[in-house]
Amino acid sequence: MRQQGYSVPQACQALNIGDTALRRWLAQVEAEATGTTPLGKALTPEQQRIQMLAAQVKRLEMEKAILNKAATLFAEPEPLGIRS
After folding, report:
1. Could you tell me which of 22, 51, 62, 74 has the fewest CB atoms within 10 Å of its CB?
2. What φ, ψ does residue 82 adopt, rounded to 5°?
3. Cβ(19)–Cβ(12) below 8 Å
């Protein structure tokens, strides 16, 4: 919109969308361009990749915690009197 020289009202009319939605998208794109990761769904490819990688890191950290707990559990000595 800005690269083509459209004003917000002109773009809203051309896209048949509300003024508030367009202004919100513009604010998010500008924030993402400065490196701010949005709380919701990212609009720029760079921020989408950051969100995907952050989700992968979170999943891997959870898997690591589960494996650490399992390793601790299996490393405990067997109680006396119980044999497998």
Report:
1. 74
2. -115, 120
3. yes
Contacts of 12 (CB under 8 A, 6+ apart): 18, 19, 22
Whether 35 is covered by a domain: the verdict is yes
**32, 47 in Cβ contact below 8 A?**
yes
Q: How many domains does the chain have?
A: 1
- Between CA 48 and CA 55 the distance in angstroms is 11
Residue 3 lies in a domain: no
* pLDDT 10s digits, 1-52: 778 888 888 988 888 989 998 998 888 888 888 888 777 888 888 889 999 9
